[in-house]
Write a structure and sequence with these properties.
Distance between the termini: 58 Å
Structural class: alpha+beta
Strand content: 15-25%
Largest sheet: 8 strands, antiparallel
Number of helices: 11
Strand order of the largest sheet: 2-1-12-11-10-9-8-7
Helix content: 10-25%
């Protein structure tokens, strides 16, 4: 028997709306929109407004600021997947004359290129793009603050460089590549460079009085790849589905997973996490969230996705400061995950073609020294090696056509696992990047590096 739970329970919906209401009230936001995606569909959205009769909904545009960077990163990963560049390429190989050409594309994606956080001159988010017509105006005379690759330092100009890189390699504008390669395939028709009604107005709320002032909405010009976009809760829900599972029309799942892997630590801040390739990573409430925050004068935004829970939380507000959208988006995920935990997929046996006696004979306990591990068979002749007791290095391995397996995650990512056989064809041990796993801990006669004491095990 199967059961579908497409809609949220009334109690869950009330808790979500209450969280949004508290955020709008305590954050003193003119308006606030929250939304939840579950298992590939938008299942809830709600809003609060300080203006009677003008409450926004999931189709109302807000400016999303640095959430734009995720879209830019996806475009770069597409170029990599097409073989037009490599992430370890220095920027100079594809974009000449920047003055920071030794920085790699991967370092720009992960904010470890050592570039300045902001542009020189006037506050770029509130001033005309005409003040920065060339990359030299964006980078200034001292674009680098530290040695590339030595640590995380968030850089808006770094994503301007990535936007220019996309234009140079693709031969079209960043905006055209974005529309054609991401927005149209994902059906994100309400995500645009400039506001399209209905959209929220951006406001600055006085810190010591309940009054507000409109914020300017500037075209960011060359800085657009770092923060230009306007979007809606519904469109960001579609993007969240893509970030959770990939979409072959845009980026395959393996490349999206690569974006989600830590590329550099987060640096200073009050959240535990890091940064992938264009994605912020956050550990909160015992779960891993991926996504991004965003802000521009008049707006704050956040999208968090919990891949394991099949959930995403979206929070959008139209105030320069005050509303804690990052905390709210995480709380929306937590509320649903706690109130309505995800049903696991039903257990199913593997297809008969994927199982044979030789593979089955390799499963079960193995020992690296005295550490006990278990080898488990997965789909597609894959395997999982995991500690049987205490902490240890767990990893998934994909089967190789020539035999053996390659690690997909964690410490053993990219490492080769193979079964080493004796002259009679029986399995002697497993070799994993020179680590030897035997059927018994330090068994005499086994291939234990350094040998085994002849006296064997003993007591006091």
């Amino acid at each position: 028997m199967t059961t579908s739970f497409e809609a949220l329970l009334p109690g869950t919906e009330r808790a979500l709306l209450h969280r949004v209401a508290v955020a709008q009230s305590e954050g003193r936001a003119p308006s606030f929109v929250g939304a939840v995606v579950r298992d590939g569909a938008l299942v809830w959205s709600g809003s609060r407004s300080g203006m009677d009769g003008h409450a926004p909904d999931a189709d109302t545009q807000f400016r999303i600021g640095s959430l734009t960077k995720v879209f830019t990163a996806v475009l770069v990963m597409r170029l990599r997947d097409e073989g037009l560049l490599d992430l370890d390429d220095p920027l100079e190989r594809h974009l000449k004359g920047t003055g920071v050409g030794e920085v790699t594309i991967a370092q720009l994606l992960g904010h470890s290129g050592g570039l300045a956080a902001e542009t020189p001159g006037q506050w770029w988010e509130r001033s005309s793009a005409a003040l920065r017509p060339e990359l030299s105006d964006v980078l200034g005379e001292q674009p680098s603050l530290r040695t590339p690759g030595r640590g995380f330092h968030y850089s808006n100009p770094g994503y301007t460089l990535l936007g220019s890189l996309i234009e140079e390699v693709r031969g079209v504008s960043w905006a055209e590549a974005l529309r054609r390669e991401i927005l149209e395939p994902l059906g994100m028709s309400r995500t645009t460079l400039d506001p399209v009604a209905p959209h929220a107005g951006g406001w600055a709320v006085h810190p010591w009085a309940d009054v507000m002032m409109p914020e300017p909405s500037e075209d960011l010009g060359l800085m657009a790849p770092a923060g230009q976009l306007w979007s809606t809760a519904a469109d960001l829900g579609r993007f969240a589905v893509f970030l959770a599972a990939g979409d072959e029309r845009v980026l395959v799942t393996a490349s999206v997973e690569e974006m989600r892997a830590p590329a550099s630590p987060a640096g200073e801040g009050d959240w535990e996490g890091g940064y992938g390739l264009g994605l912020q990573l956050l550990r909160r409430d015992g779960r891993t969230l991926i996504g991004h925050t965003g802000s521009l004068p008049g707006f704050v935004a956040c999208l968090w996705v919990s891949v394991e829970d099949g959930l995403a939380g979206i929070a959008l507000a139209n105030a320069t400061s005050g509303p804690l959208t990052a905390a709210v988006a995480a709380d929306l995920v937590r509320i649903v995950a706690d109130a309505e935990p995800r049903f696991p997929e039903p257990w199913r046996p593997l297809p008969e073609a994927e199982v044979d006696d030789e593979l089955l004979s390799l499963t079960g306990p193995w020992y690296w020294g005295t550490y006990s591990y278990g080898l488990r068979l997965g789909p597609g002749r894959s395997v999982v090696l995991e500690p049987l007791r205490g902490a240890g290095r767990r990893a998934r391995f994909r089967a190789l056509p020539e035999g053996g397996w390659v690690g997909l995650n964690g410490y053993y990512a990219g490492e080769t696992l193979r079964a080493v056989r004796r002259p009679d064809g029986s399995v002697s041990h497993l070799d994993l990047g020179s680590f030897v796993f035997t059927r018994e801990p330090y068994e005499p006669g086994d291939a234990v590096p350094g040998g085994v004491d002849e006296a064997g095990w003993r007591g006091l």
